[in-house]
Amino acid sequence: MAKTGVYTFLVCVLMGVTAYASFYIAPTESTMGLVQRIFYLHAPSGMVSLMAFMISCIGSVAYILTRKPKWDWLAVSSAEVGVAFCTVVLLTGPIWAHPAWGVWWAWDARLTSTLVLWLLYVAFLILRTMIDDADRRALVSAFFGVFTFLDVPLVYGSIWWWRTQHPQPVVFTSAGLDPTMRKVFYLSWLSLTCLMALLIRQRYELESSREELRTLEQELEAT
Amino acid sequence: MKNLDSVFAAYLIGWGIFFVFSLSVARRAAGLKEELGRLKERLQDSARQGK
Fold it and tell me: How many other C-beta atoms are found inside a 10 Å radius of the C-beta of residue A129?
């Protein structure tokens, strides 16, 4: 418990440092101006959401292979955290797009595939509430989780494969991103990854407590 | 300071979502912990009565 408290504190400090760096250390972009600072929240959130969905897919595949409940807990925990990060992406994107493009939304490949991804994972979470039997729920959602993950490479590759209105990648390419901007971006990515790990852990413990509750209820029924 | 309101809105919404999500997990965990405690007490009571 104390360990979790220390980790939570460290994540909060890291988030605070990232906020300071995003607002005061990163230089103001010459064309877009102040609104470009949304990039330090929007882009790392997108990458972290894809990481969370990847962890969820690993959990789903591992459950199908081993049928151990802990993998199902990991899959659902990561999916829920991924949906939270994807929601941030879908809301901060239009806030940036309106001053930059003049429209809130464009139905281009990157934006549409991200919205579809969000809808698929929300469906994944709703599906779980509709099945009462724990084993059946875990198996059905594991297969659905693997299917849902198929959209992730599509989201990632959409800006290379199709002509999109979404900006081209500037981080893992030789594009001229200012070195300070790049450092702030990496710091933001690190802090959001730590936040993702913390949230997945909290959510995983919740599933573990649910299992404990189910076991106790069965024991009580047996007595 | 053009578009400061957009930057402010984006960060407020982003951090708000993380905070609300974390709070929702903490609340669900607290509810479960309470229920677990109640069930454990009931189990101990029934074990005592069994003796």
Answer: 8
